[in-house]
Amino acid sequence: VGAGWTHDPFRADIVDGKIYGRGTCDMKGGLAASIIAAEAFVETHPDFAGAIEISGTADEESGGYGGVAYLAEQGYFNPDHVQHVIIPEPLHKDRICLGHRGGWWAQIETKGEIAHGSMPFLGDCAVRHMGAVLAEFETKLFPAMAARRTDMPVVPEGARSSTMNINSIHGGQKENDDDFDGLPAHCVPDSCRITIDRRFLLEEPLDQVRDEVRGLLEGLRETRIDFDYELTEINSVLPSMTDQTAPIVQTVSQAIRDIMGKQPEYVASPGSYDQKHIDRIGKLKNCIAYGPGLLELAHKPDEYIEVDDMVDSACVMGATLETLLLPRK
After folding, report:
1. Cα–Cα distances in angstroms (integers) from residue 261 to residues 135, 219, 316, in the given order
2. Which of 174, 179, 234, 270 has an alpha carbon 20 to 30 Å from 310's alpha carbon atom?
3. The pLDDT value given to residue 185
4. Helix and strand counts by DSSP (H, E) for the chain
5. For 106-117, how does the pLDDT look when each residue is reduced to its tens digit (9 = 90+)?
6. How far apart are the first and last CA of the chain?
7. At what angle do helices 307-325 and 29-44 cross, to 10 degrees?
8. Which segments of the chain belong to CATH 3.30.70.360?
């Protein structure tokens, strides 16, 4: 759960109208709101003959391929089976999320030659080669990405540009266990690996994203002595956007106006979520993310969800169900 918590991350303390705990915001608060909305609808309209389905899949953070992607492949999001989808991600109770940026994940390995650490000139340090890669990123790739801007309404503001995170770096020998009290081996590392997390814009083709990184690596191969690398793609997700005129967008918009007395804000998410599978595998375009919570709190110490926000979102979801599913008077 990370360091810095002042509340037990697994106890769901309620303090000043906020429920604290790991996952309360992202996205158990939204899931709870959707369950309350569905239960209230069924209780209020016991003769309703249609179907309301809540899918509580568990692997969205690791790609969603065993959850929503599997359901989509089995036809559960076929427009003949399901007509409207709300994913209760924490984009805030007065926002409607139309889609998300794209993502490209890859591993880069720089290669060297092992040798005794007292004679590094007899080997070739893969970590130093990786340092050259990182320097290219700092001087060329990061400034280029920061200069790009999208017309997608991505929040927060910093995500309106392309971004890349270096998720991990590993080089040389395996780290020793905490209880190891010896000295590290004296070896020149012959391998160094980083995992990159590149988030790209609707205006950027995926091939351009790949080629930009590979081009920097090829440039180093040409200019740096003995530089060698291997680039392995881990996963890719294309950007997704639902049209603002879609029925689910218009219906939730009106519910926000009616329940909260304010105009909704239309946004896009900096990271991908299960809409990518519903859109491209399920072929259902009538899908949004809507739910309580502040996206900036996701995965943070003292993550919380406000009870009042959950109630308001449940009311919006309930009103949406009535509009979409009941006969018009």
Report:
1. 51, 56, 11
2. 270
3. 85
4. 8, 12
5. 999 999 999 999
6. 50
7. 50
8. 102-176+183-237
Q: Which residues contact 43 (CB under 8 A, 6 or more apart)?
A: none
Dig out the tokens for 212 from the structure.
């930009």
DSSP 154: B
Q: What residues are paired with 98 via a beta bridge?
A: none
Q: Which amino acid, 54?
A: I
What does DSSP assign to residue 295?
Answer: G
DSSP string, 3-51: S--SS-TTT-EEETTEEESTTIIIIIHHHHHHHHHHHHHHHH-TT--S-
Closest among 68, 60, 2, 5 to 28, alpha carbons compared: 60
Where the chain has pLDDT below 50, the residues are: none
Sign of CA dihedral 277, 69, 320, 312: negative
Burial class, 243, CB count within 10 angstroms (exposed 0-12 / middle 13-18 / buried 19+): exposed
Distance CA 8, CA 155 (A): 29
What mean pLDDT is reported for the chain? 95
Domain 13-100+241-325 fold: Aminopeptidase (3.40.630)
Sheet holding 229-237, edge to edge: 163-171, 191-200, 102-111, 229-237
> What is the CATH architecture of 102-176+183-237?
2-Layer Sandwich (3.30)
| Cα angle value 55/56/60 (rounded, 5°) | 105
CA 237 to chain centroid, in Å, comes to 10
pLDDT in the model for residue 152: 96
The set of residues, in sequence order, having a beta carbon less than 8 Å from that of 101 and lying 6+ positions away, is 150, 152, 154, 159, 199, 200, 201, 202, 239, 268, 269, 270, 271, 272
Q: What is the pLDDT of residue 79?
A: 86
| The model's pTM | 0.89
Burial class (CB in 10 A: 0-12, 13-18, 19+), 291: buried
